Amino acid sequence: MNAWMRYPSKSRSALIVLIMVILTIWILVQTGAIKARFRVKRTGISEKVVSLPEPSLKGNMSVEEAIYRRRSIRDYRQEPLSIKELSQLLWAAQGITFQKYGFRSAPSAGATYPLELYISVKEGGVSGLQAGIYHYSPFDHTIELVKKGDFSEELTRAALDQPWVRKAAICIIIAANFERTTSVYGERGVRYVYLEAGHVGQNIYLQATALNLGTVAIGAFHDDWVQSIVGCSEHPIYLFPVGRRW
Known about the structure:
With about 250 residues, this protein is α+β, with helices and mostly antiparallel strands. The protein has eight helices and ten strands. The strands form two sheets. Strands 1, 2, 5, 6, 7, 8, 9 and 10 form an eight-stranded antiparallel sheet that branches. Strands 3-4 form a two-stranded antiparallel ribbon.
């Protein structure tokens, strides 16, 4: 039998199968059929990372009642939130709800998850938490301190001097990495990112309502200024000041 007609050896067959598997996975990732997810292991910054309490899956208010009571609240009592309330808000916004696939609390086109959450905590805004800018990691439900200090006044000025930003205990900043979605869906992906921000925003509204907290969606602000204050590479697209309602 000619050499080219012989069956490949076992080692060669295994190599061919491995190459085909790798090529198939690469094609699926590139087309968005599956998502490659990488988690960076933090080292040497444990003092900056705060593990949040486990979120509650049952509350005192039904979804229907929360929808009925939801309002845009711009006046807050000068009292701190608890770390448990902060945990619940962040989980409702972007928390993992299906560990196997990393699915989150808000829908995302192709599970591309382009949004990142940053939280500005003012002095005394959250009990037991120092003032600063934090980044939320949904994978391990933690927040990481990225900038120390009270930035509520700077954010207020960047948000066209809307006083409720200053009055709020915290301000949740929703920022987007558009490329995560546009790399799969092209220009249409830009629309999908803004739609997703709306889903996240409504979750924040409803969870705040269920916790008897107040919030209001803010879209009027200087993008570059907010980005500079937060110190993020993503593009800010939404602000949600949150405080204890009267």
